[in-house]
Amino acid sequence: MQNTGKVEKYIRRYTMIRPGERVCIGLSGGADSVCLLLILNELKEKLGFTLAAFHVNHGLRGAESDRDENYVREICGRLQIPLQVFAKDVAGLAEEKGLSLEEAGREARKEAAEEACTYFSAEKTALAHNRNDCAETLLFHLARGTSLTGLAGIAPVSGRIIRPLLCLSREEIEEDLQAAGIPFMTDSTNEEDAFTRNRIRHHVLPVLKKEVNSRAVDHLFAAAEDIREAADYIRREAKEKAKTLVGRQACGDARISDLLLKEPALIKRTVLMETLKDLAGTAKDLSRVHVRLLEELFSAASGSRLSLPCGLSAVREYGCIRIGRERKPAETETQLLKINGITRVGEAEFAAETIKIENFHEKITEKRYTKWFDYDKISGSVVIRTRSTGDRLVVDAAGRHQKLSDYFINEKVPSAERDSILLLARDDTVLWVTGMRMSEHVKVTDKTKTILKVTLRDRSMT
Predict the structure, then answer these.
(1) Which of 214, 240, 274 is the last residue in one of the domains?
(2) C-beta of residue 185 within 8 angstroms of C-beta of residue 68
(3) What count of Cα atoms within 13 Å lies in the side-chain half-sphere of residue 64?
(4) What pLDDT band is residue 462 in, cutting at 50, 70 and 90?
(5) What 3-state class would DSSP assign to 43?
(6) N or C: which terminus of the chain has fewer CB atoms within 10 Å of its end residue's CB?
(7) pLDDT by residue (tens digit) across 296-345?
């Protein structure tokens, strides 16, 4: 093949294949994938790798689909390249998952690639995208609205997926096959304008090449490469900043500090987008609109809330915004505190014991999860529960009360956490806001005769 040397340089440039690896090619039977198969077959001994291939019969084009499958079987048999063929009901998958045929086809091919790599123990999947595909992708994303990452087009390496033909145009590929007398299959749906990318291919790029610049595809591809390098640099910088500006909570939520606002706009927006993608587990349905809304949330009043795609929500809190999954506040059943026993509430465990003052030899210190109460001042039962309307806390020795809601505000307790904080209470009087403060009127004094010692443990941490 005339372009084998050019592809070899491109493979080496991005270290796409290492000696000893097995590469599994996605083989449709079209010009691009056949060219990829032949070039990699020429390079396998020189670069020290082995080849396998997989083909997906989508079942959408009847006899044409069977023709493509038969051709793939024939060429792999002739070259003695192991092949696995998958029959996928793409139409059924599209209906089941509410996808377009194009999306369902991509999902079916992705699933087949993973199965084939497992079957052949392959380290890499080679796909036959060319630089025209990259130019079309850039224009498609630009027109629909995207970030720098979208403008980067198609990456030469994405995890274990490699694209060795990105250095070639579609015209170069077809000319190479024709010069070598190698046949290839043509997908009739590529000639239809039903798909957006086909309309870009048939109508937009030809106009650019004819009316603007004959090398439009090359220039778009070069711009995509520059943008990808810039985006990669910005992403690395944003990742470093996120180490100190984004904190992950045990519940999975992310807290993004107000200090992010001091960063350059591109870093700030990249941190926000990468945090969203990390929490959502996908980039689908996330766009710059959601990043802008998050930026605006930093200027909103505390407690302001924003609904986001993928079941996420963001809340303005003191000094940060919190992003996490939408969820209802946990309902905690009121439980009676067992005196001289253990009380379990979810993963929390309360150990309570009474001690006569003459037998008490501990030093009372400020501890977050152990408190000592004057049991003589506690009349009636003590319960464990979450907050209720009317809760109050005694805040000084004079007996002055403060609403629990006001206490939470003063202490800058995030609104998302207030409903899950466990309380020790008697009626509407809070004896202890666990992890925080206890009521002044039940503290041990020199007149105390019986002490109630309560220790809170988290069983999930043991």
Answers:
(1) 214
(2) yes
(3) 12
(4) very low
(5) helix
(6) C
(7) 999 998 878 888 888 888 988 889 999 988 755 555 568 899 999 999 98
User: Model-level pTM greater than 0.90?
Assistant: no
State how far the Cα of 299 lies from the Cα of 258, in Å rounded to an integer: 10
State whether residue 30 is helix, strand or coil.
Answer: coil
Query: What are the start-end ranges of the H helices in 246-365?
Result: 265-280, 288-297
Domain that holds residue 266: 249-325
The domain tally of the chain equals: 3
Same domain, 21 and 144: yes
Helix or strand run (H / E) with residue 157:
strand 157-158
Contact 164, 6 (CB under 8 A): no
Residues listed for the chain:
462
List the beta bridge partners of residue 369: none
Is residue 191 predicted with pLDDT exceeding 80?
no
CA distance 174 to 183: 10
Measured torsion, CA atoms of residues 296, 302, 306, 312, in degrees rounded to the nearest 10: 120
Instruction: State both tokens at 385.
Output: 């529960």
Tell me which amino acid residue 17 is: I
